[in-house]
Amino acid sequence: MRLLGLISVVTAALLAGCASTSGSVRQPSAPETVASEKALILPPPGGPAIVSVVETRRGNGVEQMLSLYTSSSVRGQNFLKVQFYGASGSNPGAGGAAYKMISERGISREAFAAAPGVAMARNNTFLQNSYGPFAYASGRSSAGDTCLYGWQQIRSSQAAHTQARNFGMIQVRLRLCDARASERQLLSVMYGYTVTGTLNGEIWNPYGEVKGADEVLGRAGSPVYPDDGGHRAGAIEIGYEPAPAALRRQPRQVKAPAIAPVPAPIGVRVPLPDPAIETPGANTDPMPAPGPVQQAAKAGITVPSPDCIGDAAMTAACRR
Question: What residue stretch is flagged as signal peptide (predicted)?
Fold first, then answer.
């Protein structure tokens, strides 16, 4: 009887275990490739081009790695990485991503790992794009390629944190190496990228309060002039070829009319005779002195006709 009772207990336990086992298949959370149209961040217009987008969903956010077009001999792939920290759009079954503060040592390791063999030096100039402050490191490889590693944390200030809003955060990383582009051209990607993804709900807003209009608008004594292009710094150009120099407008020059050159004499030039030298065979007789009529003609004196002498000078014919 005891043996029969023991068999009954074991059989019941086995049946209970089989009943609790489910036959459904669950795919664990893993990175997956998505279309470029679903990218949560986009490079600036003009490049670099997106090659692929790999997305990873976690319990507290979403991460995307955008592989970018690469033209460099430096090992590795150009990329634009974005991480959203918040409860919106997350995978409840996956673990949360650990948040790490940006430190000098940690960001240096990231920069050297992104561009192996390139001596990266951090730029200490304060820079800011449309999303706030950012920083970058750059260097040149032994082959002459230019590399840039940029980073940015988009988060509202502590003063904007309230009881139930502005707790979200976005982190961006950029790695660019190129054989022909300059550091300034690569830096333009940090200024021109666009974050297209959002975190639903005011509690996860990473940007803080919306900035109001300029205080000078509508105020007396604060004129606003049209922008003629000379008061605002131009955007940094992006491209893999050196940009052509700007053509400067040259002042119009008025050309003087061309003067026809005097034709050279044809043949042998014969010198004029010197009056002090007597030419053999020439007539050396002096010229006769001019008469009184010739002298009067040279002096401009009118000589009267012989018919108009005496009383005949009063006639009408002589008065003309």
Answer: 1-21
